[in-house]
Design goal:
By secondary structure, this protein is mostly helical. It contains 4 helices and no strands. Helix 1 packs across helix 2, helix 1 runs parallel beside helix 3 and helix 2 packs across helix 3. It has one domain. The model has no long low-confidence stretch (mean pLDDT 88).
Amino acid sequence: MVLNCKHVWREISNYIEGTVDPGMRKAIETHLAHCRHCAAVLDSTRNILVLVADDRTFELPIGFSDRLHTKLSEVISAIPPGG
């Protein structure tokens, strides 16, 4: 099974949680070994989970969520098909 970045990003939470089937896990790991962008997404997602689990709280700047979603949409739409 060959995955592109969009496939990996859709499954990244399931991958971290360990709920993907063994074939999908292997395909994701193969992709991560060769794709620095997806490896960075994995590391960032894990870092976010650590921050969220931290009992200290902090407020995000106003508009952060909107800017984040806009940037993610731009990045995803810039990925060539099959990339």
